[in-house]
Design brief:
Elements (H helix, E strand, L loop, with lengths): L1 H27 L8 E13 L6 E12 L2 E6 L1 H16 L6 H8 L2 H8 L1 H8 L3 E11 L2 E10 L5 H4 L2 E12 L5 E14 L2 E16 L2 E15 L2 E13 L1
Antiparallel strand pairs: 1-2, 1-10, 2-3, 4-5, 5-6, 6-7, 7-8, 8-9, 9-10
């Protein structure tokens, strides 16, 4: 009898974990991101390493519109002027940094799509995720749910043969309707190529807001640090989406 009760409790716990993942996926499916959205996107980027004494820091802002006709990005004249000025300065002195141009390269179409269609981006991250913990919490005094996942990273065959260890975890906080409010990703990777060892740590956070049939990542921050080839490096990128 005790054995049967134990099996029943295990089954109930497993069902609860499965429901947590299913509830989240069902909530994400409610945001197909078909409506038109206009927003101002601001990106700030900071990088430093042992080789360079001066950190590379840049900040840019663009206007975006996403909808049935696709994605449009507008670069303001002052941003273009700064990029051109940096290019001229680097022509005269190759040691000059092109911080604005480098930051602007981070504002690419795939990243913008992930921000403006946060539901689809989060659903993809759940593809190789296993729910480990389902907890009831409170956010700003309101009932919420916190789902903790173990994520199995996928690598190409060429990458996998050099990878020694890879761990990732994802925590998603949702409201009472299972719609994400925030997410947090932690990653740790270690690889070896010939006699060289490379290590990297990753930390990402997202804050979400509803905008019609879209779940928008209105704030995203990515932090990276690691070592390789005798050098240490670190950096972060912070992006803010202001919905018009």
């Amino acid at each position: 009898m005790r054995f049967a009760k134990t099996i029943f409790l295990i089954f109930v716990a497993a069902s609860a974990r499965a429901d947590g993942l299913g509830d989240l996926r069902a909530a994400l499916a409610r945001f197909p991101a078909q409506s038109t959205l206009r927003a101002a996107v601001t990106l700030e980027r900071h990088q430093e390493n042992d080789e360079s004494k001066i950190p590379d820091h840049g900040k840019v802002a663009v206007e975006v519109e996403a909808g049935g006709e696709g994605l449009r990005v507008t670069f303001a004249n002052d941003v273009i002027a700064r990029v051109q000025a940096e290019s001229r300065a680097q022509e005269a002195d190759p040691e000059k940094k092109t911080s604005t141009a480098t930051a602007l390269r981070e504002v690419d179409a795939p990243q913008l799509v992930e921000l403006l269609d946060g539901a689809s981006a989060l659903a993809r991250r759940l593809t190789n995720a296993t729910l480990q913990k389902d907890a009831r919490v409170a956010v700003a005094g309101r009932p919420a749910r916190q789902l903790t996942f173990a994520v199995q990273p996928k690598f190409s065959k060429a990458e996998a043969k050099h990878m020694k260890s890879a761990e990732m975890s994802l925590v998603v906080t949702t409201d009472a309707e299972n719609v994400p409010l925030a997410a947090e990703l932690h990653g740790s990777f270690k690889a070896k190529f010939l006699l060289m060892t490379f290590e990297q740590k990753l930390h990402e956070t997202w804050s979400y807001a509803r905008a019609g049939d879209r779940l928008v990542a209105v704030q995203h921050r990515q932090e990276q640090s690691g070592s390789g080839l005798g050098q240490n490096f670190s950096g972060w990128t912070a992006t803010t989406v202001a919905i018009r």
